[in-house]
Amino acid sequence: MNQQPKDIALYRARALELLDYATDEDQGRSESDLQYKLITEARDTGKAYSSCGDLVHWMLYRLGVREYFVNRAEHLGWKMGRNISLLAWKCAATRRPRKNEKYSAGDILMIWNDAGGKDAHVFVVREHVGDIIYSADYGQPGGARRGRMLRNGFLGNRKLQIVIPLEDIISNARAAGKLITDDEKLLAEDKAEQSTPNPPTRRRNTLRVGDEGQLVKVLQESLNLLIADDDVRLVVDGDFGPKTRGRVRVFQHSVKLIADGVVGSRTWTALEQ
Q1: Structural domains of the chain, ranges and CATH numbers in brackets
Q2: What is the tens place of the pLDDT at every residue in 214-272?
Q3: What is this structure's pTM?
Q4: What span, in angstroms and rounded, lies between the C-alpha atoms of 131 and 228?
Q5: Cβ neighbours of residue 223 under 8 Å, at least 6 residues apart?
Q6: Degrees to nearest 5, angle at CA 21 with 19 and 27
Q7: Residue from 67, 41, 63, 65 nearest 53 by CA
Q8: DSSP string, 67-131
């Protein structure tokens, strides 16, 4: 296995921004959404087509990966019926899952449960917490975030069959000269930003671990209003740390949102109510 790239944290952070954009944070994107159509290159017309692979290939292309398995019309031309198979069988980073391993933002997972893989689905990890894998998915229909329980190698009723770690994709592409790096100004000159009115960047009011400032204080004060016990109140210090994330998850679970600890528009709306 290649040594983990020193800048993998930057690629994971960028992957999260792209996934937030692709799923419109926690709002989701319908098949009629303009940005959804751009990401899927307008192929998903609802006629026996699944766009799950489009999200993966779009993310990899935006991260600068120019390997031949990246299936985009804007890259080497789109290949019919190869969205999943190119990743599964032609990507050198592809491997089987390992016992008790944890996945991180940007890692690609494939699930299926029949011998021919006809019910195969591919998606991208956002976060892996405990037994829950939080992901960004296309082909729902449309695009959305999901949370799946990983138990005995199964995610729902389908088995986890293939893992493609982001760090291995980046390492392999870099070694092969197939990675357009930040030094070459790819990430700053993202074609998605040039071609869409809303570039793939986190909205101002989206909060997650590591954020600081007045808006975090507003969040902490809002959460404290929901807690009767003074002993478990958050310190209103404007620092979005593990305790704040834990309290956010408890709240999200209570209002039947995906409990990923990221405060997007739906979480803000629920807090305001």
Answers
A1: 8-195 (3.90.1720), 214-272 (1.10.101.10)
A2: 888 888 888 888 876 666 788 889 999 999 999 998 888 888 888 888 888 888 888 87
A3: 0.76
A4: 29
A5: 234, 244, 247, 248, 251, 271
A6: 100
A7: 41
A8: -TT---TTTT---TT-TTHHHHHH-TT-B---TT----TT-EEEEE-STT-TT-EEEEEEEEETT
